[in-house]
Design brief:
Elements (H helix, E strand, L loop, with lengths): L5 H18 L3 H7 L4 H9 L18 H12 L3 H20 L2 H11 L6 E4 L15 E5 L2 E12 L6 E7 L9 E7 L5 E6 L10 E12 L3 E2 L5 H8 L3 H27 L1 E2 L2 E2 L4 H30 L4 H30 L10 H13 L4 H13 L2
Parallel strand pairs: 1-4
Antiparallel strand pairs: 2-3, 3-7, 4-5, 5-8, 6-7, 9-10
Helix pairs in contact: 1-4, 4-5, 4-8, 5-8, 8-9, 8-10, 8-11, 9-10, 10-11, 10-12
Length: 383
C-alpha cells in the first residue's frame, strides 16, 4: 500500500474515475480498429492531463515524478495505448521545463497551455535504435538556422503531434558528442509524417515514420548548446522511463491480474471455483508478488527523484531496474492471466490477450530490456 499524500490520492481517484467512465468502454475498440483514440484524447484534454508537467505560472500542474507515475499507471490498467499519449507528451514537456531557456519557455509554454497539444520524442532511426549514439539525421548550420534532413521511425503519436523533440547530428564529434536537440513544429515546411506501423500490440497508439526534407529550424529552437543533445537524452530524459514504460507496465500487470483474479473466483470447474485449486492459487500469488515488487521499486525510485536523493549513477541504475523489472513482470503476469482464463483468454472477448500483446511492446520500446541490463551492470561494476 502506497503512502500517498492527500493531494496525490485525489489525483489518483480522479484519474481512476475518468478511466472507468471514459476509457474502459472504448479500450478494446481502439485496439481492434487500430485508430487514434480520439475519445481518450478528448477525455485527457478535459481533465488537463496534457499540461501536467507545465509550471504553474503557465497554467500547468508542475507535476512531480510520483504524480506522473500515478497517472500513467491508472490509464494503463485499462488502455496502455491511450497512456502513451500522456507519456510521450509529458516526456517532451518535462525536457523543456528542465532545459529550455527563459525565452524559449515564453514562446512554447503559452501555446502548450491550451491543453490540447501532443508532442513526440523523435530519436529512433531505421538503422539506429539501441545504438542511438550513431544516429545519422543531420542538422547543418545555415546562418541563423539549421537545415534538417533524415528519417525517424517508431514515433509515438507522430500522426497527431504538434511538436517533435528531434535529436540530430550537428557536428563531426565522435558518435554521441555531435548530437543536438531541437524543438520542431509539425507545420514546418519539409516535415512529412509517413506510414503508420501495423503493430502486434499498442494498436490504439499511432506509431509513425517522420521524414525531414530540408526542414529549416531556427537556432533559437535548439535546446542548450550545440552538441548537448546526448546530455539531454541521458541526464534529463532518462527518468521518463520511470513514469513512462515502467508505470505503463505496472498498470498493464495490474489490469491483467484484476481480470484473472475475478475470473478465477467466478469460473467453476469440477463443481467449484477454479480459484480453489492450488495450481491457480499459486499462479495468482506469484502474479501479486511481482506486481507489488514492481510497484515498490517504481515508487521508491520516484520518491528519491522528487526529493533529490541519491547520486546520478544510482538514479540511472534504479530507473533502468524499474523499466526492466516492471515490463518483464507485466509480460509474465499477462501471460499467466491468459493461461488462467484458458480458451477464453486466447479470444478477444476478454482484454487479457490485448494486455499480453501490449506488455510485449513495453519490453522493447523506451530502451530494450537488454539495454537496461547493460546500464544496470555498467553502474554496478563502475565502467
Amino acid at each position: 500500500m502506497l503512502d500517498l499524500s492527500e493531494e496525490k490520492r485525489i489525483l489518483r481517484d480522479s484519474v481512476r474515475r475518468m478511466v472507468r467512465e471514459r476509457i474502459t468502454p472504448i479500450a478494446s475498440k481502439i485496439d481492434e480498429e487500430e485508430r487514434f483514440p480520439e475519445e481518450s484524447y478528448r477525455a485527457f484534454i478535459e481533465n488537463e492531463l496534457f499540461t501536467l508537467a507545465l509550471p504553474e505560472e503557465y497554467g500547468g500542474a508542475n507535476a512531480d515524478t510520483t504524480s506522473l507515475c500515478i497517472v500513467v499507471e491508472e490509464i494503463s490498467k485499462v488502455s496502455a495505448a491511450s497512456a502513451l499519449m500522456v507519456f510521450s507528451t509529458q516526456a517532451v514537456y518535462r525536457v523543456l521545463c528542465e532545459t529550455a531557456s527563459s525565452e524559449q519557455k515564453e514562446r512554447y509554454f503559452p501555446e502548450i497551455a491550451t491543453g490540447d497539444k501532443l508532442a513526440s520524442f523523435a530519436l529512433t532511426e531505421p538503422d539506429y535504435g539501441s545504438d542511438a549514439g550513431s544516429l545519422q539525421t543531420a542538422a547543418l548550420r545555415d546562418g541563423n538556422d539549421y537545415v534538417l534532413n533524415g528519417t525517424k521511425i517508431f514515433i509515438t503519436t507522430g500522426s497527431h503531434a504538434s511538436y517533435f523533440l528531434v535529436f540530430a547530428r550537428t557536428g563531426p564529434g565522435e558518435k554521441a558528442r555531435g548530437i543536438s536537440a531541437f524543438v520542431v513544429r509539425r507545420d514546418s515546411p519539409g516535415l512529412r509524417v509517413g506510414k503508420a506501423e501495423n503493430k502486434m500490440g499498442l494498436r490504439g497508439s499511432m506509431t509513425n515514420e517522420v521524414v525531414f526534407e530540408n526542414v529549416r529550424v531556427s537556432a533559437a529552437d535548439r535546446l542548450l548548446g550545440e552538441g548537448d543533445g546526448w546530455k539531454i537524452l541521458t541526464e534529463t530524459a532518462n527518468t521518463m522511463r520511470l513514469w513512462g514504460a515502467a508505470s505503463m507496465a505496472l498498470g498493464v500487470a495490474e489490469g491483467a491480474f484484476d481480470h484473472a483474479l475475478q475470473y478465477a473466483r467466478d469460473r467453476r470447474q469440477f463443481g467449484r471455483p477454479i480459484a480453489s485449486f492450488q495450481a491457480i492459487r499459486f499462479m495468482l500469488a506469484d502474479m501479486a508478488m511481482q506486481i507489488e515488487a514492481a510497484r515498490s521499486l517504481i515508487f521508491r525510485t520516484a520518491s528519491m527523484i522528487d526529493r533529490g536523493e541519491g547520486p546520478k549513477r544510482e538514479i540511472e541504475m534504479l530507473v533502468s531496474m524499474c523499466k526492466c523489472f516492471a515490463s518483464d513482470a507485466a509480460m509474465r503476469v499477462a501471460t499467466d492471466a491468459v493461461q488462467i482464463l484458458g480458451g477464453y483468454g486466447y479470444t478477444r472477448e476478454y482484454p487479457v490477450e490485448r494486455m499480453m500483446r501490449d506488455a510485449k511492446a513495453i519490453q522493447i520500446f523506451d530502451g530494450t530490456n537488454q539495454i537496461q541490463r547493460i546500464v544496470i551492470s555498467r553502474n554496478l561494476i563502475g565502467d
